[in-house]
Each structure stands twice: as structure tokens, then as C-alpha cells.
TrEMBL record, chain A:
It comes from Calidris pygmaea. Keywords: Cell membrane, Glycoprotein, Membrane, Phosphoprotein, Signal, Transmembrane, Transmembrane helix. Residues 1-17 form the signal peptide. GO terms for biological process: positive regulation of amino acid transport. Its main location: membrane. This is Collectrin-like domain-containing protein.
From TrEMBL, chain B:
It comes from Calidris pygmaea (Spoon-billed sandpiper). One of its GO terms (cellular component) is apical plasma membrane. The lineage of its organism: Eukaryota, Metazoa, Chordata, Craniata, Vertebrata. This is Transporter. It is a multi-pass membrane protein. The chain crosses the membrane at residues 26-46, 58-76, 97-117, 181-200, 212-236, 256-280, 292-313, 408-430, 451-472, 478-501, 522-540, 552-580.
Amino acid sequence: MLRVLLLTLSVVAVADAELCKPDAQNAFKVRLSIKTALGDNAYAWDANEEYLFKAMMAFAMRKYSRKSTTQISNVLLCNVTDRVSFWFVVTDSSKNVSTVPGSEVEAAIRMNRHRINNAFLLSDKTLQFLKITSTLSPPVEPSTPVWLIVFGVVLCLIVAGIVLLVVTGIRKHKKKNKESTERENLEEKGEVTVTVENGIPCEALDFKAGHVNGVFAADDERFTSL
Amino acid sequence: LLRLSLPSKPGWRGAMEKSRPLWDNPLQFVFACISYAVGLGNVWRFPYLCQMYGGGGFLIPYLIMLIVEGMPLLYLELAVGQRMRQGSIGAWKIISPYLCGVGVASVVVSFFLSMYYNVINAWAFWYLFHSFQDPLPWATCPLNSNRTGYEEECEKTSSTQYFWYRETLNISPSLEDSGSIQWEQALCLMLAWLVVYLCILRGTESTGKVVYITASLPYCVLIIYLIRGLTLHGAVNGLIYMFTPKLEQLSNPKTWISAATQIFFSLGLGFGSLIAFASYNEPSNNCERHAVIVSLINSTTSIFASIVTFSIYGFKATFNYESCINKVILILINAFDLEEGSVTADNLSDVKEYLMATYPQEYAQLSPQLKNCSLEAELDTAVQGTGLAFIVYSEAIKNMEVPQLYSVLYFVMLLMLGIGSMLGNTAAILTPLTDSKAITARFPKEVISGAVCFINCVIGLTFTMEAGNYWFDIFNDYAATLSLLLIVLVETIAVCYIYGIRRFEKDLHGMIGRKPNWYWKIMWAFASPLLIVPELQRIFSPLQGQLVTKDYPSYALAVIGLLVAASTMCIPLGALVTFIRKRLKRERTLPPSSATGPCWKTAATIICSSYL
């Protein structure tokens, strides 16, 4: 009796070893980067974590195929390294000594990738199924590009500034023209006494800028030196 | 007032002339000069030169050239502008009627410069507007069409280079494929020109207020960046690398010529902008003191900016070096299933040796992927120009905390620097135009400024095409370099030998109240012109003696020739035209009548020749 039991166990073990080995058919390599993801909160990879992994794989297979036949014992792990990488296969209990096709396993994992990642507190990058490429999520794009909005705001401000300056300039110019024509009219009628200095009306003298009197332009050569 | 027939002197304007607009106070003038001189070259050219020509040792030729060439030439231009109180064309006409071509050449060069320089402001606006996003658009590569990975172009280079070359410029493979105008860049260019128009609209009235901001804001940002830069991880590596003097470079003549050229172009001599700014000064303004102040501030800013740049370089190089090391470590632990954290930067070489010995075959397979990471190689990548400003800096910014803030600050600083220089350029074009009675009588100042901005904007649209960056490089390399050196050479010789250094001395005495001392006179008469000659020589390639070293198609070469000829030919053409006009006038005013005696004839000749 014992011998039969031992024999069955060894056969099963050999069969398992046959099914799960690196680069076996329908086997996937998994690589975890726990320290990179969690830093100081990293947990150690031990038999309990492996049990969780098997459970998650069984869960994924059940959800995908909607058959409640996949058991934890159907998921075989092997070649666990220090990196924390290992190979696994999912066996099919209905058909003896065979593995579930890789495409089914891949589809199941893709469907439940998010749940699997969360179970281990990892992400697509830190829990890698080497043959299964993950589709990257595109960045969120608003309907109008942000830069156009900022551009619009700045443009409106600048155009408003230009219009303001141009309009005030035109107004000042018109006022000056009106004043000078008024004064000319009044001068013709001889009614306005305009204070005049040397033939230049006082208002025209811009006191800020000064007015260079050409006769006294600095010209040392015309004066005899002492 | 009696109109005496005196030779036309500056300040003699007759009775009812409108007075010239002035700066509100001398501080506005200094700020305007600083704002003009301190430009993008201080940020992106000087650090490159420092790196190429001996690090800290480069400061020696730089400072010597500043004192020997920069200050005297700057003082000369400011004095000419302040004395003649006209833009470049009028000022040189007064010095000698045959030199009106020099003024015209300055205006032409300024025109070319403003055409392409504002495109940089457009790019700065583009980056500024894109800084209001999280994450920054140049931080990550975009995904490819089936979302399995990143865009191939982006993978091969880096996300910042991809953003610059593909999303900003959308650059075509070569000059020949012009491509279409990028509407986004065209919009930014239009905005840049509108901003410039807003600032120059009212002349010195508006420019004087704007330069307070454009001159001071860059310093605020540089200080913030200095503090941030020095506290970045790895900044010290960059600083050590930069300031370690490699004194053997001092024996290389290229070092000295590069220092001279950098001082020359950094101060913006020869464009006519400094003459234009100085012409709005009070005649008694102390331009000697201002010349010294402006040139010192310009050089100090260059050194300051290069400290900031090198701390940023150090940070970026360290970051890339550490990423490279981490990538190699990841490849090794993935391939050989080693425990995470067992391989670090310190034991990497030991581990590599061990693996090479124990698993020779697998290691050999991997070795093409295992790059040799070197910090020196990262630091050695010397970049200048738009590459430094838009690629290196944005790469460093994306790795900082709160990158949006630093990005906005940085691009606002670039904008201030660029707009400050543009104000000077447009002043150089507009001042001679507004000085001319024929034009101001017909059109108000606002219309003239608007027309200049509009024409420049339309021509500038060429640089927004897909091949625009190639044209930009052409303009950058050839539009101003040769012409400016010739213009300033002619200017110095004209003032010293044609106008006469004694007369110039007296003018300065009249303005400032004291004569320039012997140092200035020696520099103007001998040193500065002598220094310009080797710079001229250097522009021509030492191998074949030709100006253009790159391989351009024929129409591009034609454009280059046109650019150089349009400005340099003005100088001899101006002299020729004046000579011809003089001859014609002399023949016209001397009718062959018998009533005129010899005395009347000579008197008439004197009057005519002096009224030109």
C-alpha cells in the first residue's frame, strides 16, 4: 500500500517536473521586483506568497473560463530564484497530464491583470509576465489643448494693451491738433495774447526735454581761450 | 533768429524744431543697455566656450578682452550716439558724409537679426504655454499607434529631443524639403511680434518702462535657479568639471580669439542699437561710467549664468549616469536571476567580472546591451545654442520636483532676455527711420513701428516651416557675423582717424566734463581695431579660406551671399553715392557765368560742401 502511494507520488512529481520547467510548452516566466516597488515595505517571497500566487492564477482561470474546475493544485510553480522569478503552468485536471493552452492562460491574465497586481501591491512594471506585453494606458488628454488656452489669454491681454495705447495716442494727437488750430484761428483774429519768447510760444517749449538754443551751441572753437 | 552759414553741427536745429524724446532718468538708459546686451548668448554661448576652452582658465582671456576691447568699443558707440543725438544713419553722416553707408549697413544687419531672432521668442512662448501640464509633455515619450510601447523615434533619442525636434520644430530631413508652415509656431511668432510691438509702440516712453522688467526679472530667476541648482544632487560634479582650469588651453590662439569674439557679439556692438539708445540721452549724461557699468554687468551675468548652467549640467549628467548604471544592473539581475539589491553601483565591476568568468557564453550574449556608463562622458557633451536652452535645460527641469514651476520661471526668463534684445534691435531700425523727416511727416510713429513688425513677422514665417531650423542656422551663422566686424572696424577707424581723436576728445569733454584719459585713446586708436582683424580671419575657415563650411545647396549659398553682401556693400556704396551727389551738386551750384569772381566761387563751394 505504502509502496503504491510512494510510486503514485513520484509519478506525479515526475509528471509535474515534466510539465513545469523553463521554456516548457504553455509555461510562463514571471518576474517580480518587490524591493523596487515597495522599498522599505517590501515583503519577503516565501511559500505563503507562492500559495497566494497559485490562488490568484486559479481565480483568473475560473473567471475567464467560467468553469469552476481549476484548483490551486492545478497551478504548478518551479525554478524559483532569488531574483524572485519563476516559471508556472496551469494543468488541466479533466485531461490527464496536460497543460491549459498558453493563449487561454494569457487571456485570463490580461482580463484580471489589475486584480493580480493589486493582490501583490505591485504594478505592470514590477510584476512582469514575460511573454505577455501590457498595453500602456494613454495619457489623459483634455478636449482643448492646454497650451491654446494659455495662448488665448496672453494674446487677448497683449491685443488689449496695443489697442489701448493706440487709441490714447490717437486721442492725444487729435487734441493737440485741435488746440493748435484753435490757437491759430485766435491768433489770426488777434484776440489771444500768446506769451512768446524769441519767436517760440511758451507752450511749445518742452521743459522736460529742454530746447537747445542753437546760437549758444557748445562750440569752444568760436571763443578765444583764456 | 539769424541763420548763419555755419557747418552743420549737432544741436543746431533752428528755431521751432520738436525736441527729441528722452529717457525719464539715466537709470532707464542703463537698464535698456543691460536688457539689450544681456541676452540669450550669455546663457547659452558663454558656458559652452568655458567648457571648450579650459574651464575656469577661460576667464583670464575673457576678462582681458573685456577690458581691452569690450569697454572701449562700447564707450565709443555710446559717446557717438549721445553726441550726435541721432540714429546710426544720421550719426555717421555727421561724422563724415561718406560714412552714411555704415549707418545703413547697421540698419540692414539689425533688420536681418530681428527677422530670425524673434523666432526664438516664439519657441520660448511655445514651451511656456506647454509648461502648464502635468506631467510635462517632454517628460515622457508618446505611445505608438497600437499602444504597446513608445514611439520609435522617441525611443531612439530621448523624450526631450523628440519634443524639440518633432513636436516643436517638426523638422524635415534636410534643407531641401521645405514642408509646410507649422500653424502652431506661426501663432507663437505672431504673438511674439505683437509683444514687441506693444513695447516699442510709443518709443522711449513705452520702452523705458518695459526695460525695468526685462532687465531685472532674468536676475531674479537666475538667483532662484542658482539656489535650486546648487542644491540639486550631482550639481557639484558639474561645477568641479567647469571650474577646474585647464591652463594649457591658454596657449591655443583660438581661445583668445573666441574670448574676443564673445565679448564683441555679447555687447551687441555695431548694430546701431547702442547709438540709438544713447541718442535719447541728455547731452550731459556720463556715458563713460555707464559704459563701464554695462560691460561689467554683462560679463558678470555671463559668469553667473554659467555657474547656474554647470550646476544644471552636473545634475543632468549625474542623473543620466545613475540611470545608465541602474539599467545595466537591471539587465544583469534579470538575465542571471540575482537577488534584487545585491548588485549596486559600487560592486558592479566586481560582479561583472565574476559573471564573465562563471557564465562566459551568456555574458557574451549580453555584452552589447551593457553600456559603459561614464560620468565624464556625460559631462563632456558640450552643447550650445538652442540645444542647450531647449533640450538640456528642459531635460534637467523634468527631473526636478514641481517641474511646472521651474519650467515656467525658466521660459519666462528666456522670454525676458529675448524681448530685451529685440527692443534694442527694433530701436536700431526705427530710430533712423523716425529721424528722417521725409518718413515722419507722412506716417505717425505707431504706423512705422507697425509696418516694421509686420514685415518682419511675414518674413519670419519662413522659419516656422519644417525646414525652418536650417534657415535659422544659416541666418544665425552668416547674417551678422562678418558684417558686424567690418562695421565696427570702420566705425573705430572713422572716429579715430577721419573725425579725429582730438575732436572726439573735445566733444566728450563738452558732454561729460572731462577728457578721456590716455587708456581709452590708445585702445580706440590701436588695440581694438587690431583685435578685430584676427576675428575677421577666424571667420574664414582655416582649411580652404572660404566662409561657408557646411554643404549647402546652391540657392542657400546664394541667400548667404546676399545676406553678407547686402550689409557689407552698403559701406562702399554709401561712400560712392555721397561722392557722386557731391560732384553733381557742385556742378549745379556753380553756373558758368562771368559775373562770378573767384571769391564768390570758393565761398559757394564751401557752403555747398558743408550743407551735405
